[in-house]
Amino acid sequence: MNEDIIEELQENTTQKADIEEQKAMTTWLIFLISDKKYAIRSSDVVEIISDLSVYKLPFMPTYIEGVLNRRGEPFTVVNPNPIIQDNPNAAPPEKLLYMIFKRTDDQLSLHISDILLFTKIEDSHLKLIPNATEESFLLGTVEYEAEEIPVLNQNAFELLIRKDCGSN
Question: What is the distance, to the nearest Å, from the Cα of residue 131 to the centroid of all Cα atoms in its chain?
């Protein structure tokens, strides 16, 4: 009887240790903008589409390429190069590849160069920038294969568009 109780306690202790060893993981999309790697939570992306026409809009900031038509819905296309490179004349990526963000309040897409991979990374490998605000384009970095990859803040693109186009 006592041996059964001791054995059950040991099993419970082992199960608790196994649960504690399971690390919190997040799936990340690692992609390229020009030749530089960036990451975003895969849960923030609806889909990645290619080879769609982008229709120019007059009187827009240079980082807004225009809109694309995704199944009858317009999505604003952002060229991240002028923002990231801090050069208003920076050209968009050559490849016609667009990342559609999962958003409830607007329809936003980012012109990217390539998709590298989807991977699960331990949450402890995310290093946030201490002074980052909601307007910061980088939230921090995530470590993957001994490399620190910048994490983009999709909300910052929307805030910049609202600010530059006068819509708060």
Answer: 19
Q: Tens digit of pLDDT for each residue in 31-64?
A: 999 889 999 999 999 999 998 899 999 999 999 9
Q: Are 133 and 42 in contact (CB under 8 A)?
A: no
| DSSP at 158 | H
DSSP code of 71? T
- Taking the model in full, what pTM does it have? 0.81
Of 21, 98, 18, residue with least CA distance to 52? 98
SS3 helix, strand, coil % of the chain, rounded to 5? 25, 40, 35
The rounded distance, in Å, linking the Cα atoms of 31 and 48 is 11
Q: Are strands 73-78 and 64-70 parallel, antiparallel or unpaired?
A: antiparallel
**CA–CA separation, 42 vs 153, rounded Å?**
13
